[in-house]
Amino acid sequence: MPNLKFLRLKRYACWFAILFLFVLQPGHDGCATSPNAVSVPAYVRRGLEVEKHFAAYSNRLARYYESLSRELKQRAPDLLVHLEPPPVIQHGYQILPAITFDADPETAAYAYPVAYSWPWTDRLIDIQLRDIATSEAELRRAGSADSSLSRPALEQLALNYRAQSRRRQNIDAHVQYNHLWQAAIAADRAAYDQATALEYQVIERRKIADQLNHLGLKLGVRVESSTSSPAVRLQAREALLSQQINQAFSRMNTPGFVQLENTNDEWIIHVPLFTDIADEEFVNKVKHIIETTWRLTERATTFRVELNVAYVPGYTLYGEGNLPSPGQQIDVARHLQRFPSGGAVLTTGALTTHVQDHAIVLGPHTIPARVLAHEFGHILGFRDRYIRGYKNLGKNGFQVTEVIADPEDIMSANPQGLVLPAHFTSLVQSGAKTRILPVAKPVQVKATGTAA
Length: 452
Known about the structure:
It contains eleven helices and 13 strands. The chain is an alpha/beta fold. Helix 2 (42-75) packs parallel to helix 3 (118-144), helix 2 (42-75) packs antiparallel against helix 4 and helix 5 packs antiparallel against helix 6.
């Protein structure tokens, strides 16, 4: 299973350049081709079709916004406060995502497998186009009605537009996600074949757990019965699958710059972090999220992460006159090579937030705080506790699939996942450089005075 190093954005950028080399026929049914498109990989060709579809949908939403704005100005100008222009979705250097803070985690539950693909993204766009058409019809009816009847309709349309605008951002995130991971699958099919096989094992184990639960049995609680009983066979298979899954996830790759400091009652994991993000408030927010999430006390011993942040100005990385402007597309792999060695990196310029080498590369889309802390777990050397596999859809590219193996673990990227004592135990045992501070010795004060 790949460990989020698997993407070379340079490779993706080469395919994306095909936008300028090939002319696609209208439509988004996956069948449109051009004479030169035969040599273009299916996932690239299908992605370009969806990009065209998304652009048409975005233009339709923008035109509807203008029509709605004009009607509100004429008939209910006080309702304009509910309306915001379509946000410009910008990708590139120094574009920062908004960070949302999760609700308190509730009882963990296994999520169903989820899948992303170009056909599914197309379907999301079609749903929104139908919604816009309905809104346009409602707007026409409101425009022809008297003011007493039109105002409630206009107010509802203004409020609905906010949700329509948010859904557009979500679909853009789907588009960028597919570009990123379908390119990764194409670049390393063998690794993703292994990940897909592991995904099937996780799904099988979950089905067995459901069967045992139906029999009134819990995982890990063995029944004493004949070896031929269904319960015993299920438990034996579940135990084998768990061993294989845990073995796949147990490998760590903690970088040498991670240092552990041990005192009487505390373990501190020191991580140097270089960043070229000039927004100090944003960087401090990231630091706070990581340090508060990666902290717990177990049996009177505190384990915590301490980030040592060093700001590296962009002009230091690129030199005068070569610094990319905000929003400019960059070669992320080359960009990361400009940073000093010996530390993690926090930077920008990705299509969607991910970890590449020892860097958290931020995309433009909103990211929950817990997911940001999950990405930092990769910097410490932990693997995902979910599996990203795939299915070959032929002319439609790949379907990217994700299955959570352990919803209680923050490395599952589940909103309910937590930092567990096992994480810090693994770090202590990982062989990371450790500095054990000497225990303070009690000071003995010599007695003074005259002997009796």
